[in-house]
Structures are given as structure tokens and as C-alpha cells.
Design brief:
Elements (H helix, E strand, L loop, with lengths): L8 H11 L8 H8 L13 E3 L5 E5 L8 E7 L5 E8 L10 H9 L15 H7 L8 E10 L5 E11 L1 E6 H8 L7 H4 L4 H21 L9 E7 L2 E8 L3 H23 L4 E5 L6 H9 L11 H14 L4 H12 L3 E5 L26 H14 L8 H34 L6 E10 L2 E6 L5 E6 L9 E10 L4 E5 L1
Parallel strand pairs: 1-6, 2-7, 14-16
Antiparallel strand pairs: 3-4, 4-5, 5-6, 8-9, 10-11, 12-13, 12-15, 13-14, 15-16
Amino acid sequence: MMTRQRIDLKTIAWDVMKQYGFHPGFPGPVIQEAESFSRTNQSHSGQDIQDLRMLLWSSIDNNDSQDLDQIEYCKEEKNGEILVRVAISDVDHYVTKNSLVDRHAAHNGTSVYPGIIIFHMLPDRLCKGISSLLPGHDYLAIIIEYTVLPDGSVKYGSVYQGIVSNRAKLVYEDIGDWLEEKTPPPESVQKIPGLENQIQLQNKAAVRLRKKRRDNGALDFETLETQVVAEDGIITDLIIQRQNAARCLIEEFMVAANETIVDFLDNAGFPMIQRVVRVPKYWEEIRTVAAQYHEFLSEKPDVRSLSAFLLKRRIADPERFPDLSLTIVKLMGSGEYVSYIPGKKPIGHFALAVTDYTHGTAPNRRYVDLIIQRLIKSVLAKKKPPYHIRELEEAAEWLSEREKAANKVERYMRKSAAAVLLEKRIGERFEAFVTGASEKGTYVRLVSPPAEGRVMTGEKGLRVGDRVVVRLLKTDPYKGHIDFGR
């Protein structure tokens, strides 16, 4: 009997990256340039660089993340105000404009996370080393300050350069469980004096911010993000990466930090790239979806009414809410980057219910953030903008396309990984939810493992949201296909 050859998902991932126009590996000259960089002597602050190493900085990220872009610190002020400082790694200090590393990063535009392997935007020497805010070293950083008022409003503050040191690399799941009172404080928090109070203060600020954004109509989605679990390159499980209090904390801090960056560049009169989600083109289709739940949205696009509808459905049917979220997200359209000149009317971010927003807090992982960082540093140095508006227009268009391509790679590889996981279970039956039903096909998501596939037989009469039992017919990891029947 012939033994089936083991499927190499890493090779598939490389091929898919190339298929979507990425350069998955770093050419020799790029590696050589990155290896020539050395950790800057940051033991003394310069005249315009504040020494903030004494503050109790910490990061919260995934357990296996090494490419840390930001760390946070809060201070309680008078009248119940909370001063928030977010420190962003000064990646531009190493990756200068038009260098070999920069050109490679500009082409790919983003790190890509297919699950079984990570394709970093920058070489490991940088993103997992000298430009990553890991504990144990001092780092140059861009500091973003803002104040959270008792009602959750944000008062924009200063943006400046500093030297920082991360005291603790914390993990989303551990911190989330603690903040949600499921577990005691993790050891990583308990062993550092003052860190427990510091994280609780950060959470207090984040709760205020989140409530205020919800009151303003921010959309609260919950799309299921599956994460591949592998041991020695073998897929063992698919798990759902759920939103929790720790992820909400970082999300709220970054939204406010990015708004502060826009305010800073706008006041300097600098052109920039903004992150936008346009008013939905398919609002009538969104209204039709809501009507199926006996909810009636306004005739014109209105973020508050949509937000209220989503909140009701989250409470009424949490199990099916992720699929409803995905439906609405698809009808709204994806986010994109656009160039912006101060004084012009901004497009805004419909989903976040904010008007002026950018991406500037992850320069190790997204190229647009590196562009924004260079703009900030030029303002601080009292220099002319390093980019002409035409350059920003071209970059915004290219980076929007690269983001879409990265999402396609990640979806493809999640399906491939699920196909590998299920390949020995042909003929078995699974409980599932219908996630799509149209002329293009009918699709389901299994309850466990959370794999998605197409219903090839017996699909007639199925509607989105139906709970069904399906039988696994076929898997094809190379095409990312999983076929079911009834």
C-alpha cells in the first residue's frame, strides 16, 4: 500500500505568495544590508530626545510575536483624566528611504501571516531584533501622547522622540482572562512591582474609549479569525482567535494614537496617507439583511442605526453573530488608503465612527506606517515633507492593493490548512452553519473545527444562518478546497 506524501504547506504558502505578486524571500543584498545595521548606542538622550526608560512600559501581543511595534504606559492625572503614552519603534532610524531593505518592504507592503509560516515585511535582523521593542534593551521611539477624559473623549497631546525600555512582554490571552476576572493576575504581571495597577489603569482608559466610540456609532463586529495550530510542521488543530479585554485595550489605544498622529500632521500642514472606510455603496442590501431580523435601518447610510442593530444581534444570537458580522463587512466594503492634504474634506472611517484616521503604529509590519513615521520625524526635525503628494497617492493605491492580496493569501492558506487537517476524515458528518447562499454557491462553516467549505450536493433550500449537518466529501489542500454534501 502506497503512503501518501506529506503535504508541504510551507511550499504551498511560498507559491501562493508569488501568485499574488509578493516576494516571499529576501534577496542576498537585502539581507546583507540588514546585517550591516547595529543596535544604536541609546544610553544617553539627545537634546530633542526624552529619556523615558524609567517608566513602567509594557507590551501586549500574541504569545509567539517577536515583531513588537509598540509599548504603552498610563498615568492618572487630576479630575479623573488619564494620560496615555504609546511608544512606536523608530524603524526609520535603520530603514532609510530608498535603501535596499526599504524598496523590498515597499514592494510587499505588509507582513503576511498565513499560519504555518510568517512572511515578515522586514528581515528578522530588524523586525525580530534591533527594531522590535522586546524587553532587555533600550530603543529609540516615537512617543504619542493623548489624554482620556472621564467621558471617554480624547484630548490630543504631543508627538516627540524618546528612548524607552519594555519591562514586560505580556500575552493577550493571559491578560484578557485576568481583566475579565476569569483568572488571577498572571505571573508575568505579579513579578513586576506596580505593573498590576498599571495594566488596570490602561484597561480603565480603554473601557472609557470603547464606550465613547460605541456611543458615537462605532461598529462592533466579531468575525471569526481562525488560527492554525502546528507541531513540527504538522497541522494539529484550528482554533478561533476571540476578541477579549486585552485585545480591546490595544485596539482602543491604537485608534486614539492614530487619530493623534493625524492631528499632529494636520497642524503641521503635512500631506499624509489616511485609512478610510467609505460610506457603504450597498446600504440597501445592508437594510435588507437587517429587515430579515425585523430591524429597519434608515434610508440613508447611518452608522448609529447600524451599530444599534449589530449590538442587538450580538446579544440575541452570539453563536451566529460572527457570520452576520462577515456579511455586513462584505457589503460595507474593505478599508483602503488614500492620500490627504490638510484643509481638504476627509473621507472618514465609517466603521470606526471617526473622521481623521491613519495607520502609524506598526512600522515593523506595515509599510504605510513607516511612511507616516517619516512624515512625523520630518515635522520634528523642521524639514520639508519627505514625500510629494503624487508619491503618497501612488503609495496609497499600491498599499491598498497589497493589503487585499495579503488577505487573499491568508484566507487561501487557512483553507489549505483546514483541508490538511480534515483529509483523513472523509465521510464523517459535522455540525455547521450556512455562511453563504447564492447563485455562486452555498458555503458552510463547521462548528468544530471552524473550517469553511462549499456544499456540493443537497444545498437547495439552505439559507444563511441555518444550522445543518454536512458530510465531508473531498479535500484539496493545493487549491484550498473543502467539499461537503448533505
